[in-house]
């Protein structure tokens, strides 16, 4: 008779509780779809978080999300050939530049305004070509 405790059993006969994970989604024409990401090696991976705070800390407060259990998420992305699931990833990208409306107002062009055809522009700049 085997006297191992249930905690040591590599394949328990009863599965543990299947909790839900916040999963980032994007809206699409037929509803929402799980967002897929890439690992540092370039493989596609599904992503889940252990809490809403973790998701917001990595992807920001505007990221849409739904709650899915691990088996449901795996079944959702399996037809796409995605077999990896990353839980609580850390952001590895460089910080995003400010969006246009968040950026301070500044002139887009330095120099005289565009006057039309290139020849007229060169003449306005005093760099007309001689023939």
Q: What report would you give on this structure?
A:
There is one protein chain. The chain has 131 residues and is of the alpha+beta class. Helices cover 18% and strands 23% of the residues. The protein has helices at 52-59, 70-77, 118-125; strands spanning 20-28, 31-34, 36-38, 44-48, 65-69, 84-87. The chain has a three-stranded antiparallel beta sheet with strand order 2-1-5. It has a three-stranded mixed beta sheet with strand order 3-4-6, with helices on one face. Strand 3 (36-38) and strand 4 (44-48) form a beta hairpin. The longest helix has 8 residues, at 52-59. The N and C termini lie far apart (102 Å). The model has no long low-confidence stretch (mean pLDDT 76).
Question: Keywords, please?
Answer:
131 residues, alpha+beta, three-stranded antiparallel sheet
Short description:
Helix content is 18%, strand content 23%. The protein contains 3 helices and 6 strands, in the order ββββαβαβα.
Q: Can you tell me the residue ranges where pLDDT is under 50 for at least 5 consecutive residues?
A: none
Report strand %.
Answer: 15-25%
Major β-sheet profile: 3 strands, antiparallel
Q: How much is the radius of gyration in Å?
A: 27 Å
Average predicted confidence as pLDDT: 76
Q: What is the terminal-to-terminal distance?
A: 102 Å
**Class of secondary structure makeup:** alpha+beta
Helix amount: 10-25%
**H/E element order:** EEEEHEHEH
Q: Record the strand order, biggest sheet.
A: 2-1-5
Shape: elongated
Q: What is the β-strand count?
A: 6
Number of helices: 3
């Amino acid at each position: 008779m085997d006297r191992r405790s249930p905690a040591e059993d590599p394949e328990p006969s009863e599965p543990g509780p299947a909790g839900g994970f916040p999963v980032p989604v994007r809206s699409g024409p037929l509803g929402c779809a799980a967002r897929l990401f890439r690992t540092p090696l370039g493989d596609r991976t599904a992503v889940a978080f252990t809490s809403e705070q973790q998701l917001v800390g990595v992807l920001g407060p505007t990221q849409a999300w739904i709650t899915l259990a691990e088996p449901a998420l795996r079944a959702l992305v399996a037809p796409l050939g995605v077999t990896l699931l990353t839980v609580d990833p850390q952001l590895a990208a460089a910080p995003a530049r400010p969006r246009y409306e968040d950026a301070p107002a500044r002139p887009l062009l330095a120099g005289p305004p565009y006057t039309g055809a290139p020849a007229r522009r060169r003449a306005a700049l005093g760099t007309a070509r001689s023939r």
